[in-house]
## 1
Amino acid sequence: MPTVSDQPLQCAIFCAIVDNFGDIGVCWRLARQLAREHGARVTLWVDDTAQADRFLASQNLSIEALAPGSVAIRVWSAQGTADRQGLDEATASDLLIEAFACHLPQPLLEAMGRAERLPVWVNLEYLSAEPWVEEHHLLASLVPLPGATAGSQPVRKTFFFPGFTPGTGGLLREAGLLQRHAHWQHDATAGRDRLLRRWQPQAADALTPDTVLVSLFSYETPAMAGWLQAMANDEVPSLLLLPQGRSLAGVAQFLGQSLRVGGLVTRGALQVLPIPFVSQDVYDEILSLCDFNCVRGEDSFVRAQWAARPLLWHIYPQEGRTHLQKLEAFLQLQKRQTSSCDALQAASGLALGQFMRFWNQGEDCGELWHHLRPQLSGLRERAGKWQQHLAAMPDLATSLLRFCRSQSR
Ligand code: TRH
């Protein structure tokens, strides 16, 4: 049985980087919070150092420069870890997190089979608002370890689901995050000015009080052109912040020209400002200061909810269009939870839901945007209520540690 003493909690997180930055983005955020707020010694095991390096560079970090005693980043593969010591350390941890069902390497399972004391072993699942998540959260499977001594019992691996309701593990939310948003939003005009001057003073100078500030971090979709055209045709100006990534090609195609960071492009009432891929902390500030955020995958989607601003979720496309069910589950849950909103806010919530369905099915959203854009202030209030509702639940890192302690003696 695992034990957790007064010593700092030792935690190993195994992350397989499938694509993009979502897997490492979530694991890094969790690792950092466990270390900073809970004093844990965390090793984040990644299977792709090149991608990890790229991600850390975007966070102005490098593997070598990580503060000793907080989070260490090391490499694993299906063959195990670089040396035996790595396997021993992971086996000796108090909490072993297998992120997104990444399948621990066989040599580690064998080392666990030989160990006298085992960590609390958790499979951290993907985020979903589907109702079955509550039923599956904290279910365990019994895993027979290879090479375990005769008569030894299979080991419990617990499925830990992030989620939006108290019956789940909650969402990643570090201490002070909501206060930071409140601070940024307190004087949003000055904040926007400061933010834009980082990349293009001209964009800051052109900003008017009625400019709709939008951020776009999506996957490729044919829905994009109609939305951009609607902003270009609108009677109020929009400024689109476009971080480097997969949205770029679609916007460039719409504009009919190549784009470079800091190069402001104007089409009618729409201005487009390509910006660098910034650190997670600066990205939070962008989400906070924009009137509307298009986000994707898992982590940016969660961060936009903490920013309490209306969002468009470009959900990670899955085979068999199961992602559309996930989108619907989220929309329905949000509708139920914000039922105390007044009739206007409720109606604007429905319009936003429709916009997300169209976007995720690659349909033209232009007309919908004309209808939606004037409702942004009502949607903002609704997003604020949703943020408060979510913040009343324990955050994911705290829930994980509570679970770990409940399993220890
Ligand atoms: O990158 P994503 O699409 O990630 C994922 C992965 O594709 C994964 O395989 C899939 O399973 C999952 O989605 C559902 O989107 P996500 O989750 O939003 O991750 C992006 C990360 O990048 C997030 O941590 C925020 C961060 N980010 C920055 O640090 N700077 C930036 O400028 C931007 C735009 C994002």
Note: Residues 215 and 241 are 5 Å apart (CA to CA).
## 2
Amino acid sequence: MFITFEGLDFCGKSTQVKLLKNYFEKQNKEVKLIREPGGVKISEKIREILLDKKNSEMTIETEVLLFSASRSQLVREKIIPFLQNNKIVISDRFHDSSIAYQGFGRGIDTKFVMDLQKFAIGQAIPTVTFFLDIPIEEVLKRKAKLTHEELDRIEISENDFYEKVRNGYKILAGKEERFVIINGLMKIEEIHKVIVNKIEDLLKEEK
Ligand code: TYD
């Protein structure tokens, strides 16, 4: 099973990823966590370039190619081998982030970004994708608690960028059946319950 988490910055994905990992581990299931961009040596190097605020001259074309390059390396080095060995893989962001952020957010032709993702991910198609949806006001509220130093190159983006990314996620989630849209304003435990219920349904279907 390949599970991905998506959403705007500060939507609470990382907390849910950890809770889900614990849930599986309590059942003695082996889980592999993946971080995007990054996760393997080459991809971590690309991550540094992508998130470094000093790289303000980066073009959007370079940005989408680097995110995709980082992902394609991670897919072949880790994700596909893990899945072939029947491990559960959980990824904090995956290809939908590029479609939402670089496609809908930056305005790069979404069809092109989607095709590029197909090339980058190959057979590593998520079984289920949890989209933690929070309003932009909430993103801004959570962002305001951090200093400029704590934010990365993408996180210092303008508010209307986030609006476009959120709409993009909604369009994607409406199109693809693997998406589960969750109200990210719910309590942490409530969100976790929704996620676990969905996983249990999927496991039943598998049997
Ligand atoms: P991430 O490390 O997941 O940050 P966070 O934990 O705050 O969600 O991602 C870093 C930033 O990169 C985040 O602002 C989202 C952005 N991003 C893209 O723009 N495109 C992508 O394909 C991915 C994976 C991330």
Note: The chain has one domain: 2-206.
## 3
Amino acid sequence: MAKKIAQNICLHILEQGELDKDEMDLMAMAKKSLQNAYAPYSQFAVGAALLLESGEMLSANNQENAAFPVGICAERVLLSYANANYPNQAPLKIALAAKALGSKNYSSISPCGLCRQTINEYELKFNQEIAIYMLNPSGEIFKADNISQLLPFKFNNFK
Ligand code: THU
């Protein structure tokens, strides 16, 4: 039989009431931030909020461009801003919320491949896992304990 390498990955499903105070604040910031998304092309607004090890919280949203590939996801706007301005503060938790513009309901959200690789980069830089909280339309939250749950067999060059 052919040999195989297996990885066991999982997401936790959390009710709102299972979030601690920081996590609730973070999710509230992500929801608020999506209101400032610049998404005239996709009409899909994403908000992200980040908890740094100092306890400080930052937020950002997606920023699109008429030349579509130039647009940047909320997660990468946020993580780049965080590392540009707080280069010595490890990010601990990132919360995500999304909505189609004009809708009153939240949409499902999960980081794209580029954003997964970016989260991985900051886990590597700080040697610190980053937990990812993704709001569902039902109000439940999917939690990945670290980027390995979303990006198994990832590229970790030079490590
Ligand atoms: N987007 C994000 O900001 N984060 C994600 O995790 C997925 C997608 C943005 C990119 C684009 O502006 C819009 O959502 C539609 O894909």
Note: The CA atoms of residues 117 and 151 lie 8 Å apart.
## 4
Amino acid sequence: MSDSPIWHPFTQHGLGEPIPQVARAEGAALYTADGRRIIDAISSWWVTTHGHCHPRIMAAVAEQAGRLDQIIFAGWTHEPAEAVAQGLRAVMPPELTRVFFSDSGSTSVEVALKMALGFWANRGEPRHRILVLEHSYHGDTIGAMSVGARGVFNAAYAPLLFDVGTIPFPAESAEQACLDALEAECAAGVVAAFIVEPLVLGAGGMLVYSAEVLVEMAAICARHGVLFIADEVMTGWGRTGTLLACEQAGVVPDILCLSKGLTGGAVPLAVTMAREPIYAAHWSADRARMFFHSSSYTANPIACAAAAANLAIWRDEPVGERVATLAARQAERLAAAATLPNVANPRALGTIAAFDIAVPDAGYLSDLAPRLLAHFREAGVLLRPLGNTLYVMPPYCIGEDDLDAIWSEIGRAVATIA
Ligand code: PLP
């Protein structure tokens, strides 16, 4: 047992694995309290886009912290929140006219689901069925778990989760089956919304599907008046090569969830953006029709200042070029890794590169992932396999040397461990 009273997330303390203490970070590097340099190959759980401690974001946080720390957001507003909302309106699809703040990816999903049900309830047509994609992950709060894949992660909490309709994942061989199932579900006329991770399912194993399927899925929803929710918590802010993954399909969702890279990954913040009819369904002189959702730190000014700085970086700096360069480098490294024995299903999308390690017992609880984790921890690389899936998703500022170091360590791990 360690001396620390901390209970860490997604950590089995009974395994006694070391928990390194990080003292500072810069760019793609983390520095531990005992002086080691670690390459952050997964952007600290997919959040860090421009790099750790980006000077403009840090300056904005410091400046805001000296001016206004926190203010209730029900019935009050402040300049950083207004700047973020206007900034989002300028870069996100124009159809998404409304911005609702929350604190994490999971809460942005809860908000999206409540907006969808509120929309139908206020129209006097109380639809409540939610459709989800097989293998999805949308977070760990009760609603977000309900719309995610069921498994070892949430088996203990299953009695609390609500029923959803699960649409088969559109793997290349199952695209039509996916679309047929969606069409059949939507045709029943009781579906409130369909929530998807556009183009790549993250925690489900970096599973990639085609933009054409995304187009069709959105079209089916539109035909049946089913709200289309895009959870771009992981895919947003350049991860898949474009600002939003939906862009690659020319799809504009009815509701959009953003978090992680919203602040460049520096501090927690999320938004749920909605089309005007969803807001209009709640707009009334009748208080019973308002959107009943809040949390204490909604639109925290310091977090909003970080998000405003992130938007300014996207506006002023060649972020798109950095993303394209990293995407090309990742594709090269993945192609080389794909020739190694035991490497299966190589796949890449934008800055994300992933593959599976072909071993017989590869479930989430097999000992492969902890062994890989230990290997990378000792090698000074922060990588966190998903079962037998290894993926690299670094900050966009990562240098060639660090990227080479990650991939050569992957080569060594695959050779020695698999
Ligand atoms: N949605 C997606 C697609 C995610 O990948 C995640 C987290 O990885 C979430 C929602 C939940 O975000 P958070 O961990 O900030 O609650």
Note: The chain has two domains: 13-40+320-395+406-416, 57-316.
